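Entry 12.
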Amino acid sequence: MESGNLAHPKLRHNQQGMTILLLTVILLLISTLLVFFALQYGLLQQKISANLYRNQQAFEAAYAGTQAAIPYFQTNYALIEAGASGGFLTPYLNASTQNVAQSNSSQYTFEFSNPTTSNYQLINITSTGVNADGTSTRVIHEQIYSFSSSITPPTMSLQTQGSVSLFNTSSFNNTATNNNISAGGNAFFNGGAQSTTSSGVSSNASKVGSDVTQNDSTIASMSSSNFFQSVFGASTSTVASNATYTYNGNFIDSYNSLNGTTGSTIWINETGIGTLSGNTTIGSAAKPVILIVNGNMEFLDNVTIYGYVFIMNPTLPVFFGNNVIINGAVGSTSNLFFLGNSTVNYNSSILNALPPVGTVGNYAVVPGSWRDF
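Predicted 3D structure (tokens):
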């Protein structure tokens, strides 16, 4: 007879059933967890896909903004530049630049800025795109550069094909490049007239210093039109046709109405005698002008000009009278006379901010400037 320590068959059967039940519960739990995680993963993928879609939509809106900003700046350059403060562009926001809706209900806003004070040739574009439901935002930065005709800033206070005469206490001052006068003829200093550089007085009635070049045959031998093009980098017809303001005079014409004009190219055709006088200020340090006179002009008294003054083809002597101050530089195809205490102060910052002389709007993207971070 076998010992009674062996499990009863019915007990073994119950133990096997419990094991199977436990395994079944574990498998069901695992299956439930797998289904739960699968659902969660699916929801996560949906969220990721939705976020990617929103992000892509915002990016595409921002990109559309950069594409719209370039032609907009080209068309509205003068208005945008006119609002500059302290030499820097201010936000130019309106219905065409701010929250511009796209067909998919996304929006873009673009703004312009200039990285260098008073220089509007290199422009930063910042375009912000927002997706349709406003939950995603992307920002793209890009730079554009003007390849329109621009004057190469002079490196001297005065360049003339003729001679230059300074009387009384008139003066030329250049502490930046220490180069005041380049003349095709002679340079005469009379009375207390002088030129100064960073080292102090360089030229006066008793000496002509290294800041003055006389009898420069290179410029004296040029035709007036070729000399003009060497200065402006464009022909007289190109510059004249793109001037902001054009005036035609044929008698004794006052141009004092130019008082307060800034950031412009001014072309005057004068077959008579043009005059500027009487507390007239043209241009500013931040928005200088290019003043071109084709003919005769007299700067009589109390005139201040910020920018570049160029006199071409005068048939009479050109005089700069008492309290006439040019902050920038002067150029001429003929003889000039500086009287009283007239002054030319060479200023590279002003000259670097001169307006373009060709067609505005030839802006192109600067390679490598695009970024979305």
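Annotation: The radius of gyration is 37 Å. The mean pLDDT is 90.
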